[in-house]
Amino acid sequence: MARIAIDMDNVMADIYSHYLNYYETSHGIKLDPQGLHGVPEGEVLPEGLVRKFLLTPGFFRTAPVMPGSQEVIKALMEKYEVFIVSAAMEFPQSLREKLEWLHEHFPFISWHNIVLCGSKTIVNADIMIDDYDKNLRHFKGRQLLFTAPHNVHLTDYERVHNWEEVAAALEVEVPAARV
What we know:
Number of domains: 2
Shape: globular
Strand content: 15-25%
CATH architecture of the largest domain: 3-Layer(aba) Sandwich
CATH topology of the largest domain: Rossmann fold
Oligomer: single chain
Number of helices: 6
Strand order of the largest sheet: 3-2-1-4-5-6
């Protein structure tokens, strides 16, 4: 059975919309998501606020689920060995929050299949789904770049824009009742 490594932030969890919601709540300013295309993730908000939000207790725990991710990951698990792999060590409070988030939104994923690490260069899988070039660049298997505002100009990878495209690329059917 082929093994898939799936990233969390901006792949399973919609971190960009979460940044924008946090910013609107804290500053009363609604930003246009279209204006973020091609902007590095750390620069999407002024005054170093991205890092501040990432260090805010509860930030990772309350991130919205990426549409379609739950249903497609369930379908992938019927055909592949699925591991959730997240580089969480830079923000230590995220370890517990990400684990709690996964237990709430993806209770069907065993703790055996969750890897919270520092560098993803250690990952040994056949397929990796990630939004960051730095994580895919050294990966030896099939590389699927999940579209996020910061990576819209990258062309070196097989791109998937959403979870429906992940299902098609990896040839899994998601029952209509589950979509």
